[in-house]
Design goal:
Elements: E1 7-11, H1 16-27, E2 31-35, H2 50-61, E3 66-69, H3 76-90, E4 95-98, H4 113-141, E5 144-149, H5 152-155, H6 162-182, E6 187-194, H7 209-219, H8 227-234, E7 245-249, E8 252-255, H9 273-285, H10 294-297
Parallel strand pairs: 1-2, 1-4, 2-3, 4-5, 5-6, 6-7
Antiparallel strand pairs: 7-8
Helix pairs in contact: 1-2, 1-8, 3-4, 4-6
Length: about 300
Amino acid sequence: MMLEGKVAIVTGAGGGIGREIALAMALAGAKVVVNDIGASLTGEGATSATPGQQTVAIIEQRGGTAVANTDSVAEWPAAQRIVQTAMDSFGRVDIVVNNAGILRDQIFHKMSPEEWLAVVNVHLNGAFFVSRAAAEHYRRQGSGAYVHMTSTSGLIGNFGQANYSAAKLGVAALSKSIALDMQRFGVRSNCIAPFAWSRMTSSIPAETPEQKARVARLQQMTPDKNAPLAVFLASDAAKDVTGQIFAARHNELFLFSQPRPIRSVHKEGGWTPESVAEIALPAFRAQFQPLDRSGDVFSWDPV
């Protein structure tokens, strides 16, 4: 019971990865606020309390304790209500899992401002809003854990996801900033880049043989494979782990590097555009990063 006595908020917990994390945290002893607005994959159209209520029902059937919440993470007052639900229901909050997300994929030169803002608002602003709403409680009690869902689409790259990629790389930077700012209060912040076949990945094209092969690999990676890492990062067993980026891929776990200088050149008297081209460019070129996508880097079959 690694989370015995703790209270967790899991956003986007009406299905997929979020539901599996909520279930696993409840089994590990946590009381859980199951947040989900019950919207479509794009975040458009009618909303429903049913997905979140179904997750709560499963938790209760297994002997756990949970309450549902249908507020949107993308609005500051609503995010405050999500955290207040934990306080009103269970008297405290110890864990925030920022998992809620939508997709509006579009090739960059066709992406509309609305498509950009909708995705950034949920993923990046939502992660900030819910985390910020919990921060004062964490500070007062001298403890707390954040687990944010980032993505290899942001960490590495992908086609047609400028909005999603930018938001997810922003989440990684947000997590590091939280880790730095709140370490003195006993608060930890880490990221997971999850691999799973879920509603969030069901829109991946599967037309060419290469695309079909990639989807087949993803379908082997069930959402529950991400839950053990999330439970660990939320637990006291990870009390010394903060500011890190992990990934869970079927039965594999990864620790990601973070950007650091890899090559430097110096020129007495400074640089001109011409000397940059003549001296710096040849020195740097061997260390240039390729235009990889997530599927290029993680190209082997899951084991």
